[in-house]
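From the pipeline queue, job 12 of 40. The input is one protein chain; the requested action is below.

Action: predict structure.
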Amino acid sequence: MQKERLNRRTFVKTSMLKFAAAGGLPKILFARRAVPAQRKRPVITARKVLGRTGFRVSDIAIGAPNQEAILSAALDAGINYIDTGEEYSHGSSERTIGRVLKGRDRKSLFINTKLRLTKDVSREEVLQRTRECLERLNTEYIDCLMIHNATEVDMIGCEGFHAAVLQLKEEGRLRFAGITSHGNSWWKNDRVLMAEAMEKVCLAAAEDGRFDVFLFIYNFLNKTMGERILEVCRRKNIGTSLMKVNPTHNFMLIQEEIKRLTEERNEERANYYREREKESQRTIAQINEFAERNGLSNPQEIKAAAFRFVLKHPGVHTICCSMPNFEEMENFIALSGGSFSEKDEAVLQEYENDFGRYYCRHACGICESHCPQRVPVNTIMRYNHYFIAQGREKFAMEKHDALPGLKAAACENCTGDCEEACPYDVPVQTLLRLAHRRLSLRP
């Protein structure tokens, strides 16, 4: 019976859920430090050549900007790579960029935008949509136009896209082409697909030879696929832009989530949570011990270590960061040019050993083919990331609402085949339940 599956192992996963979705340490250790009244604002201190484009980009980039003041301040601090897409805030992100570009040296900036396409899209449609991007961006040309989230290798040869790219280049309206991938959600329109991971899509794009810049996932808990892609990009001189590089986001939310879980007591599950409230406290103690052992006093410290891990890779050219406020913007910019220390390495290794199982690997999808309900695990967890790590709540909820078929509501009474299939021992079912509550505003 399902009740019998709620054993101690399941509880430990559940009680660590927000650590899984966020990786947090308790507020008692991570009190916010006072900010000095007068301090030097951080600036970009490192740049790298973006592969065959030849453009020297800041090692920290801004992604999907929506606030003019923040974008303007980021550019003043030396960021010169801006990532956006036509669907971000229904074109509002591109319009924000267009307004901020006025009066700035356009040639000093690299602007990347993206179109979500089907493989049979026509050249005329790509041309029309790109021209609309140009109008919103208020620019004469786009530095790079990407296929947004290519989920299948078949997208690589999308002739409508490539024909439009050639024409736009001839017109002087486009300089380079690129691709981004989060992997496949393994089913679409009630048709089961063979899973095509991010690695397979990106390697096919590298072999194709017509793509100059890649945007993909790489972090210290999700290394294997990313490192193989980075090596191919190095050999073929392809520019690399990284996303989702911090698998320890939203450090301070574990207590809040445990409280929520234990208060959610219907008759069927009340005893389960009552019996395990003491275990929740032991979990918090375990996290406290981790912080104390490693001398961590601020959530920014481990986040910074995660970023420095990625930046140290010689094949990484820039990292796209969502900057919802000025504090986050300055924290990201302060990471520019930082060196990865022995302490960073030790902390991240211990984190991986102790808590790595609580991170659902982006672009993985290994568990999806084992789901009897065809729940798109990879996609839902990505939208959950947008919500809790990037502060893009509305965007995440809209994307989640538009998903066809069953969502994570189907996980409530499932036997958890996804968890049995996960090679990383991730509490997938628990994460999906919480993502459903968050993305659907379930009370």
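Job complete. Residues 263 and 441 are 17 Å apart (CA to CA).
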